[in-house]
Amino acid sequence: MAGPQNPGKDGRTSAPEPGQRAAPGNKRTLKQQRAADIQNKLAGFKREHEKRRRNRLILLITAWTVGIALVAGVVVFAVVSSLPKTPPAAIDGVETFSGLSSNHVKGAVKYAQSPPVGGDHSAVPLNCAVYSEPVPNENAVHSLEHGAVWVTYDPQAVTGTQLDTLRKDIPSTYAILSPFSGLSSPVVASAWGVQLKVTGVDDPRIKDFIAKYRSAKTAPEPGAPCTGGVDGPGKVK
């Protein structure tokens, strides 16, 4: 297509000289059009790059948010799972005993309950622990006075894996586990003034009893030391 023409002296028009700029208001030159196309393409590339960068950023933020939520969920679950479960207000089968004396005496004491749940006792408490042999009643009762729970088992009925299960459920403080001959049930859990008899180590009421009465205010001296006393025979841990 011919470029813009210039009028001559005689009124006629002629084509512009090579390299001569187009007059204002005329269409852009081919060089200008190419430059504009390049600028448009660069702008398009830039917009696409920014769009992809935003998408990557959104994906990254979403991934981090989901990851943090998952980690928080795991932490909350672990914390909640590790917390002791609130025991029921009443545990089926628990017997209560009132009017128990709490004097310090010397020598053996004849108790009304077997195992005892309170009464006169030795001036020295039994160190709370797991024992493989019977422990002195008088020292164990002193530990009950301090808020300990005493879980006893029939050594003829509870052995092997059952005994391992029972030992695993005993807390490291304010709890005593020991064999006891002549029990009326395979497992008997006692605290000051209360007692629970069960037929198996897998009875969930054992854990409920420990949670409810361990360091409970129903003991005469809850929170008093359960260590620094005397070890019974056959201390395991």
Report on this structure.
The model has no long low-confidence stretch (mean pLDDT 85). Helix content is 34%, strand content 11%. The protein is built from four helices and seven strands, in the order ββαβαβαβββα. With 237 residues, the protein is α+β, with helices and mostly antiparallel strands. The longest helix has 53 residues, at 30-82. The N and C termini lie far apart (104 Å). It has a five-stranded mixed β-sheet, with helices on both faces. It has a two-stranded antiparallel ribbon with strand order 1-2. It folds into two domains: 27-83; 95-213, 3-Layer(aba) Sandwich (Glutaredoxin).
Question: SS-based structural class?
Answer: alpha+beta
What's the β-strand tally?
A: 7
The tally of helices reads 4
Form type: rod-shaped
